[in-house]
Hints:
The chain is an alpha+beta fold. It has helices spanning 13-34, 48-78, 84-109, 117-168, 233-239, 285-297, and strands at 170-171, 179-180, 185-189, 195-200, 204-210, 213-220, 223-230, 245-247, 252-255, 259-265, 268-273, 281-283.
Amino acid sequence: MNRKKLPHYLIEKNNLVVQVTITVLFAIAFLAIYYPFSNTAWFSVEDEKRFIYTAFFIIFSTIFLIFSRIMMYYTSKRLIRFTFPKYILWNTIEVLIIGLFHAYISLRIMRISIYSPALIIGKSILISIIALGFPFIVTDLSFALIDARRILNIARRVIKLNEANNNKNVKTSGSESLVTENPDIINFHDYTGAQKFAVKLENIYYIKAEGNYINVFYNNKGGISSFVLRNKIQAIEDAFAGTPLMRCHRTYIVNSNNIKLIRNDSDGYYIDFNQEGLESVPVSNTYREKIVKRFTEI
Length: 298
């Protein structure tokens, strides 16, 4: 996988909600276990003052994480293209802010002076790294595993359904070789792996990502039709890797067989199709070389 490209599941809305929930629950459990073994910890539900600041710290940290993840989601959608370094930096800043807030309460409010301020700040940051970093890593790995299984499931269904379609169109005559009539049927599946739509490859123009959905634009009796289903464009790209359906942009997959021309405008490269009425599809720098090479080979 391209190291600069952040997988969609890391900033998917539902996954961010799950991650914050698991992180908060894990952090509370960790602090409860950690408290008896530390002479600088001030978390408590028995002492009234400590309980108030414990509750305040947990509530503040939770609200901060929720706000941060909301900002991460909308920033990734509208302002910047998230990469692994940016994602890691964002998580690191979250951990540092909560760690420094913990240190502030320890030093300024609880007046813990058994160690030097530098050591208490270091311990606070270390606690935050364990309490937040561990669930961050575990949930990210879990999301990656779930997404890999989903893509594999879709790919398997695509292969099986294409084989079934091919078998239906096989004709035999004595000892003659098998001949397939329609081998280029493309089956589209939703995020659960259920088949929702089938169309000939030659009729597909492009596929456009629209949030958690994709929109397939295709030729229907000389006109332009579209079909919307719930799935990620990354899953579609992975399922049809090696076919004329090629990614050209973070939002688009095009049928390279139906490209009429690729033009270089002042604001970048664009694809036009051999069908009137279709929008021009942008080509990002990431995919430009591959798309141009494929077009010149057709």
